[in-house]
Amino acid sequence: MTRTHLVTGEPTENPEPRLTYEDGGAAIWHGDCVEVMSQLGADSIDAVITDPPYGLEFMGKGWDTFKASGTAQARVAEGTDSSHPFRDGSTRIRYGRSDLRAFEDWCESWAEQAYRVLKPGGHLLAFGGSRTWHRLTSGIENAGFEIRDSIAWVYGSGFPKSRDVTEAVEKYLADGPADPGLGIREGVYDVTRFLRAARDAGGWTNRMIDELFNTNGMAGHWTSQAQQPAVPSVRQWAELKVVLGFDDSMDELVERLASVERPEDWGAGSADETFLGALVNDPDAPPAGDYGTALKPAFEPIAVGRKPFPGSVDRNVLQYGTAALNLGATRVGDGSDSRARVGEASQDRRYTELGGTDFAAAPGVRGGGETGRWPTNLLLGHSPDCGEHCAPGCPVPMFGDSAKFFPTFRYEPKAPTSERPAVIDEQGNTIQHPTVKPLDLMRWLVRLVVPGGGRVLEPFAGSGTTVEACIIEGVPCTAIELGAEHLPLIEKRIRKDHQQTLFGDLA
């Protein structure tokens, strides 16, 4: 049923916001996060930690799609919209600048409400995609936030979503886009073989044909059985038919081939100077898999924003309890590798005895101190096979003996099955959320930006990992989720005994 959006005043199909669960400091809302946040009190939230859609059309989900309007799509499909140039010539419209602007505007819309409900100095942590997080960050900044930093969550278990270009081009050359039954390469050679026979039967040579038609060497391509074969245009074919005196048995094939773009039509230079030309001339090279469209994903950025505040950090911390990061609760290691700088030039100063300056050194202990090392904005996820010792291929020890100087948090690179709740709906279907963050990672982020007793807001709850992290850390949390099918997943996290194994069954 269509209703009026509380904030925009526009018609919306989204449900009326309602509180579905509240107990023990956890509050779960069902509805559009912008509407729900508009009902929360200003300056009432201590930190926002969220995993919003990335704007990448993930798994074809509507909640992750930010396409331009139908009119704009039509202009792109027609090739008349120069501001939106990315398309493949078919009805599938690729993302362009206007789509990214729409995503940025959407990020700004929810960030504005997050800004309103945050206390002065409150932090916002928002996950983003490596291709679109610049728009996410811009949207957050447009809403009024000060961008303080970005955190890179690095892992080694990403799955590459790349299209095999070699295989795709081979298919194009075998079938063609206009007619799936048309074999382009084979059809071209059929035509050149036919013309070669007609040329020889009439006593003509390629030079004679070029001189007659002023085609500057094209006759050699029209009759080639080796490299760079080519098909005459329909007009040229009709003229050749008159001169060479052959029948019309190949007319239909020539017309069909002439309507299909071929490698030599796609750019400057001859076909053998291009990647596609190499495929035409040598079907065995390059091998499948050598050319693709994407790198393997290995990190997700987290935008770090802070709501501005008047006066000093000290005063703001005293008044609101916000604006500072909890470094003590997020240090790396246990401090067992720390030692005093006894006998070192930097024991009490940064100056060497020869008069130089060691800017990397700081007076005090080496190793960060008794409570561990200073947390950084790079998080390295261990391999899923790591136990007491790092498994081969784990990204953490790639720095050799200096690995201990990097933040090596012991959480899975991707959330394991045990942290992906599932429920059975009334039709017997298993419901899970496709994007789930590791619980230990979310717990670390909660500790980093939430002052003692502060409340967290998660506008895009998903399966509820942030909610569970807050419960374990003893922090109250308000979570919002638009998808009704995901609400049971959140409640399953909330209601379970957190001392037991997570989600051992699907019931």
Describe the fold and architecture.
The structure is a single chain. It contains 15 helices and 14 strands. The protein is α/β, with parallel strands linked by helices and 507 residues long. The protein has 2 domains: 266 residues, Vaccinia Virus protein VP39 (Rossmann fold); 117 residues, no CATH class. Helix 13 packs across helix 14. The longest helix is centred in the N-terminal third of the chain and has 21 residues. It is elongated, with a radius of gyration of 31 Å.
Supply database-style keywords.
alpha/beta; Rossmann fold; 2 domains; ten-stranded mixed sheet; 15 helices; elongated
Offer a quick outline of the entry:
The protein folds into 2 domains: 3-157 and 296-324 and 414-495, Vaccinia Virus protein VP39 (Rossmann fold), CATH 3.40.50.150; 165-281, no CATH class. Helices cover 30% and strands 13% of the residues.
